[in-house]
Amino acid sequence: KQVGRIGSKILLIYMCTTVVASMVGIAGGMILKPGVGVNLGTFDLSTEFTQVETSFADVVLNFIPTNIVASFAEGDMIHIVLFAVFVGIAMSLLGEKAEPVRKFNESFGNVMLKIVNIVMALTPYGVCALMATTVANLGFDIIVTLAKYCVCEISLFIVYGLLFTIFTKQNFLKLLKKYSKIALVPFSTSSSNATIPYSIQFCRSMGVSEKVAAFTIPLGATLNMDGTAIMQGMTVVFVSQLYNIDLTWTMLFTLIITITLATVGSPGMPGVVMVTLTLVLQSVGFPLEVIAIIVAIDKFPDMFKTVLNVLGDTICTIIVANSEKEFKADVFNDLAPAEGGTELL
């Protein structure tokens, strides 16, 4: 019962913060206008965009797969995530009968992650070449323009601060000061998964019980990627401004849902955001050529995204622990020793 209660709370808050983050990204793009006045030089934007009007009912119905094999082949992330949810529910209901399927999925998932790791090992060379090409074609102004991404990411601190202060009644600035002890880890690795052990130890040192932190932090490394959601929301607006595309309310609704599901369905590894970004752009029929611009300079914003992702996991964990009376404010305020070691810090 306790696991179910904690799980439902953390899933709800993770989903809510991701939706808010996607809205912040879209709103930030409309305010900062990263794609307005950008000189693309020789960069090819020849692909034409034809806006197709769809009703709200069509948008909702399009989330439901009719042929899951075709959805996998076409990389339709919304269909895949919904199918995965139903498969997971069915496996949970079957119990031990579904154990062979679970083991196969786990092994196959590890194989795919290893492939991604191999590709990521070669990525720095490709990124170097892309960055050189981008700067040569577009000039240094494009870097200044895309630096607005980092500004938009920082705005999420306001949302985090309000959530933390309202639900825990503690000082958010004190949390940030303490968080600076491990912020270098996500900043340098750009990986939420690599930061999991550090985040668990950090939450324990903040007064969170281990049974809560050990459950919510690994879950957040995959499900809660608010920094990534902001980046994808802002990129959509960036593309729309480059192509002079008017974003309709139907398109905005589709984008928010797609961004939320895409971030939930992606592993906490560096560079994966570019895969999910492709799916987000495809959901509204946007051209994909502009991704070459984003990926060339994404490394620095990616560091900020991961720092925000890990901070969001920590804040959500403390909020849930506080609601379960598994958070010791005395430890957070340095009035009592923390349980467990902090060797990793």
Q: Could you describe the 3D structure shown?
A:
With 345 residues, this protein is mainly α. 71% of the residues lie in helices and 0% in strands. It has 18 helices and no strands. α12 runs antiparallel to α17 (299-323). The longest helix has 40 residues, at 99-138. The radius of gyration is 21 Å and the shape is globular.
Can I get a quick summary?
The protein has 345 residues and is mostly helical. It has 18 helices and no strands.
What is the chain-wise order of helices and strands?
Answer: HHHHHHHHHHHHHHHHHH
Q: Overall 3D geometry? A: globular
User: Can you give the helix content as a percent range?
Assistant: over 70%
Number of strands: 0
Extract low-pLDDT stretches.
341-345
Q: Any descriptors?
A:
mainly alpha, 71% helix, 345 residues, globular, 18 helices
SSE blueprint:
Blueprint: H1 2-32, H2 56-61, H3 68-74, H4 77-94, H5 99-138, H6 141-146, H7 148-154, H8 156-168, H9 172-179, H10 184-189, H11 196-205, H12 210-223, H13 226-242, H14 249-264, H15 273-283, H16 291-296, H17 299-323, H18 329-332
